[in-house]
Amino acid sequence: MRNPSISRFFSISSFACALLWVAGPLVSSAGESVFDFEDPSQLEGWKTSGEGASIEQSDLFASEGSASAVMRMEEWESGDPRKTYVEITFPPENWAAYDWIVFDVVNPTDEDVSAYIYISDKEDDIDNGLRHRFGIANRSAKRVFKKLGWNIANDKSINPGKITTIRFVVERPESDVAIHIDGITLLRDKGDYSEDLPDQLQESVWEMQKEIIAAQIESATSQLDEQVLGRALTGSVWDEVERLKRGVEEIDRNANAADQDRLEMVWLGSYLEPMVERFNQYPDYYRQLLELGLPNNGFLVGFAPSMVNVMPKHLPVDLTIAPNIRLNAARNENESFQLAVAPFDRDARQVRVSASELRTETGDSIPAGQIDCDLVAYTETTNEPGYDVDYVGWWPDPIIADPKPVDVKVGEVQAWWIRVNVPIDQEPGMYYGKITVNAEEAEPMVFELAVYVYDFTLPTHAPFPLAFTTISKRSNWIENIMGGQKAWNETKKYEFADFLGDYYLMPDCIYRHPTEDLPSKLDMELIEYMRDQGKLGPFSIGYFHSDNPEWMEEYRENYEAVKEAGLEDYAYLYGWDEVSTKMWPRIEDSAAMLKERYPEIYRFTTTAEKVPPQMPSMSATCPINAGWNGKNVDTLREEYGIDSWWYTCVWPPHPYPNFFIEYDPIDARVMMGIQHAKYRPAGFLYYETAIFGENEEKGGGIGEYPYTTWNPISFGDTHGDGRWLYYRTDGTMVPSMVMENFRDGMQDLAYYMILAHKVKLYEDAGGETSDWLYEANIALTDFDEYSKYRNTYTKSPNKVYEFRDRLGRLIEDAPVEDDNPWAGNEGMPVRGIWDQFR
């Protein structure tokens, strides 16, 4: 391990001189320079985390002038501090008037870098200050804007009038890091401050990038073998090379080319080698196809699990070439897989996929109408979000029902989503049928589909308490999407409720305010409709965010309506969304008043909780999943009767699971199934599912497909956070791959609960020790190979199937018939069912 050493502080007087140097002229009416690193004195006084970190002046990649600061951080080794950093501490500065900090960053290395900027008013407590992540791809540059004002004032317990410390951090660098920082500036507002890099910096970065692009072209094309890949696939690579060369030439001719134009060329260059790797998979796939005796139509057909992204362009795809595919599913379960078509010789035209009915040897059947052959559609990302991604471009996510036949170009891959919906009264057993792929001027390609139906039934409602916003306050979507208030009231709201109910979700808004009009106002007709459908789950009667006693009566009308319907066990009050710990006394005051006025109604907030509790009038707290503290959770429940839910949102990113479209959808399935089974939170909250952004306008939505015009940006610069559903131009709702895997995870959790229920009944009845009981108890507690920690979990679909099917076999073999731990309820109440298994 390297010996830590800290650079010396420099004197306050020398720092003051440095500030006078850099803070002299205003960059604009809204900005003030903090560091431009032109004077070497600005590099004095910076501290580091040890010998593995340094900062020095550099004559490369200056935003303006002739110098930048280069920060170097060595590859992390076992025993090193988790955070490698450089930081500067200075006399308190008043930043209260500024809303943004902006700086230019260049990464000239071959590896992507994920870094953070910390800002604090306390040198010795910087971890509790403001923290912003910024990612920078290899051999690239960007201008980084990070919000200051609101975050400092509301999210963090720091004083914006006394800022003392700036720290740049890389956590456990996976390789040596060298990033150039320049032009650190404070802005009152972004205004006209350019989002592009200064011309001087653009030019130096572009010269570096062109060298890389030339090397990427040389490397990729040197791996091409037309005799192996054929003329069509080889030609598609050369087409991309020519497109790249034309793009580079156009940028060189255009003095006004934007950073985004250059970045797109860098991305395209980086995809050439993966594209060749993708095509080098095809000869083996082709050989397997011929060995199966399937016709040579000039395109491959393969299978993939529902838990992976089958990429349409550029990146390798992992397909199984087989004559058949098998699924296992319980009654009332939905289980899916993907079928992919990949042309290698010529374009495949008017491709369509269909399914036959499934039959047992004894004549029982699952009708063909219960098997959906939907089309996976694609949305194009055009930015690198605030979390690490390996690819910017076309991503799979929307799932189009009843699709028209589509053309698939050579070199591209098109996936279909094959979903088997097992009826609630289906006889158990093994069912067989066919999946057929047809295309113009091609022989039909027929594959066997086998589905084993377990002899138990999953619930129609969610197996576990959920609090979701599905009717967004951010949206005027009744007018823009649903055809207006009249259409919504008459038919559309029920169609929407049916759509949500199929995915265990309620038409709900956790931020509901009782005085608002629809859509976020509580609609008891919809609540009663969900109850009648057997799909009732928790719902909000209001959002609270004040300790003013006068506001506490605003929930009275909704409360009385819920009481009259006898649904108090399903209603909740959620409030004080993601506020800091300094608000705990006010939260407790408001919760106590709500408890007095509406004693039956569940109350919770998104925050952690201490022991002893600081908010004892809350029914539950809801920490973010990364902050889950199992010991505190148990104590709060056992000694104080306070539940602990959890939630996720735009944070945390990998290594924790999340719902971004760039993450394989297995994240959603593992989080909702295996991790909920292991950690047993009392419920799961998610803040939004319908942030449609600029897509929401009359005539908007998905029209043409599979390559859609949908802008995937949802919250901030992310793709998919807060947006799980799409819609067609006619207002038809469209599910996402994330939404499908969310439901699959919930169904995995239902398996777990059914087995736990059977074990509890067996043990309570005095059942004897048996091989079944031994194996069942192991299955209910053996999680490490599936999710050892919340941030260490399997990425293998086969392991997820193994977890689920192990439970399924034990349920079928159980010496207890009762398979309904939800009996006695009209749906899923807000208070969960874990206590009955303890």
Task: Provide structural commentary.
The protein has 838 residues and is an alpha+beta fold. It folds into four domains: 12-195, Sandwich (Jelly Rolls); 203-280, no CATH class; 298-457, Immunoglobulin-like; 466-736, TIM Barrel, CATH 3.20.20. Helix 14 links the parallel strand 29 and strand 30 (643-644). Helix 3 runs parallel beside helix 6 and helix 3 packs parallel to helix 7 (272-280). The chain is globular and about 80 Å long. 45% of the residues are buried.
In terms of topology, how is this protein built?
Elements lengths: L11 H11 L3 E3 L2 E5 L11 E2 L4 E6 L9 E6 L9 E11 L6 E8 L5 E8 L9 E7 L3 E8 L1 H7 L7 E9 L5 E11 L11 H24 L3 H4 L1 H23 L5 H12 L1 H9 L1 H10 L7 E7 L18 E8 L2 E10 L4 E8 L2 E2 L5 E2 L4 E10 L13 E7 L5 E3 L5 E8 L7 E10 L6 E13 L8 E3 L8 H4 L4 H17 L22 H9 L6 E6 L11 H10 L5 E5 L8 H14 L4 E4 L14 E2 L8 H11 L2 E2 L1 E2 L18 H14 L4 E3 L38 E3 L5 E3 L1 H28 L6 H11 L5 E3 L2 E2 L3 H17 L25
Parallel strand pairs: 14-24, 25-32, 26-27, 27-28, 28-29, 29-30, 31-32
Antiparallel strand pairs: 1-2, 2-12, 3-6, 4-5, 5-12, 6-11, 7-10, 7-12, 8-9, 8-11, 13-15, 15-22, 16-21, 16-23, 17-18, 19-20, 19-22, 23-24, 33-34, 35-36
Helix pairs in contact: 3-6, 3-7, 5-6, 5-7, 15-16, 16-17, 16-18, 17-18
Keywords: Signal
InterPro entries: GH123-like_N, GH123_cat
Pfam families: GH123_cat, GH123_N
